[in-house]
Amino acid sequence: MPTFGLADNHPRRNVRLDTLVRLRWLAVIGQSTAVLVVYVGLDFELPIWACLAVIALSAWLNIALRLRFHLTQRLEPDRAAWLLAFDIAELAVLIFLTGGLQNPFAFLFLGPVLLSATALPPRFTIMLGAFAVACATVLVFVHYPLPWDDDDPLKLPPIYMMGVWLSILLAIGFIGVYAWQITEESRQLADALAATELVLTREQHLSQLDGLAAAAAHELGTPLSTISVIAKELENAIPADAPHGEDVRLLRSQATRCRDILAKLTELSSSGEPFDRTPLTSLIEEVVAPHRDFGVAIGVSVPDDRAAEPVGARNPAILYGLGNLLENAVDFARERVDVVARWDDETIEVAISDDGPGFAPDILGRIGEPYVTSRRRKPGNDDGEPTGLGLGFFIAKTLLERSGATLTFANRALPSRGAIITLRWNRNEFERLLSFAPT
């Protein structure tokens, strides 16, 4: 029997030993009950002691695992695959002793394969599925008679048995692939959400540092002023050639330098306090400014009536989300990106459009899902294949939706080319001061 270690190389592709042990105890109880009901309750002939010996072997393995290993540890995929292969073999022997594929419990071959599809890498699931199919194939031709009434024996035609075999084969393949796909999508979503939380934590940390810098500048301003005044008085009170004259002048110059540094921190903070209320146009300009020097013209269009301009929180989620969408537009634009803002008494709308290749039609309806690549590369600069993991769009969409935005993705109508991303907020929700904190 293989030794079992902690799963270091596959942190997301493993299963707890306790899970397998509990499932096997359920199988032991179910198999024992079925065998005893058929033998005692229905009074059918079957090799009862051989069946109970096979079930006892499975129970013994469970006891050995419980005594030898910590049940809370997670198994490496190959170790878990060995245990599941044992379960398939144990079930195959029981089915062999009780009628082969004529036994309706033959479909339990699906169990270990399904568990592997949800918890182990695909290659182990393929190997276990092939092993289960091989066992089922052998059982078509080699098996003990099905326990039945001797006065009215059951004879199933060969074509029916081939149908049973084929149904098991298709069920293992289809259900295994389906379970793997659903589980893989769940894993990708969990990874993407974890990445989003990391981004939220980073933005929150930066915001906290901004606030701490402002607080430090405010609190340290008074003692530094006192130090500067005293240093100036000392400098005036002692002769220029005094032994400590140079030290006093150095003290005064360094105190002045500290005040200049704190003044810069104060300016940075006053230009954009993390939770200050900011006009929409200022927020857009803050997002656009870092992307103006990449060879792509960025036009910003806002209504002329600035008196009714929305004013909302300088929310890091909105800044990051808009910045990510704008960066994507700049990366794929040929010559120009346009940012158009509109508002009325009820809604706020921001549209980001470019003149690039646009979104691939086959994934346009799935943009924003994790690991869905949303764009094709610029023509003439590549092979036309999609680029990126699609995780950036997922994070941006998640952050913006948490701020109350609704996003729509579309391509420009022909003959124009390019992509259009439209964001809409309820004005009252946008203007509400949001205290940004990741969940």
Describe this structure in words.
With 439 residues, the chain is an alpha+beta fold. The chain has three domains: 15-148, no CATH class; 207-270; 277-431, 2-Layer Sandwich (Heat Shock Protein 90), CATH 3.30.565. It has eleven helices and nine strands. The chain has helices at 17-41, 48-68, 77-97, 110-119, 122-141, 158-237, 245-270, 280-288, 316-332, 391-402, 427-431, and strands at 15-16, 74-75, 277-279, 297-301, 311-313, 336-343, 347-354, 406-411, 419-426. It has a five-stranded mixed β-sheet with strand order 4-6-7-9-8. The protein has a two-stranded antiparallel sheet with strand order 1-2. β6 (336-343) and β7 form a beta hairpin. α2 (48-68) runs antiparallel to α3. The longest helix has 80 residues, at 158-237. The protein is elongated and about 120 Å long. Mean pLDDT is 78; it is low at 1-11, 268-275, 377-389 and 433-439.
How much helix, percentage-wise, in residues? 55-70%
Largest sheet: 5 strands, mixed
What is the count of helical runs? 11
SS-derived structural category: alpha+beta
Tertiary shape: elongated
CATH superfamily of the largest domain: Histidine kinase-like ATPase, C-terminal domain
In terms of DSSP E residues, the strand content is: 5-15%
CATH architecture of the largest domain: 2-Layer Sandwich
The count of domains is 3
Topology as H/E string?
A: EHHEHHHHHEHEEHEEHEEH
Tell how many strands the DSSP assignment holds. Answer: 9
CATH class of the largest domain: Alpha Beta
Q: Which sequence of strands runs across the widest sheet?
A: 4-6-7-9-8
End-to-end distance: 45 Å
The stretches of 5 or more residues where confidence is low (pLDDT under 50) are 1-11, 268-275, 377-389, 433-439
CATH topology of the largest domain: Heat Shock Protein 90
Mean pLDDT: 78
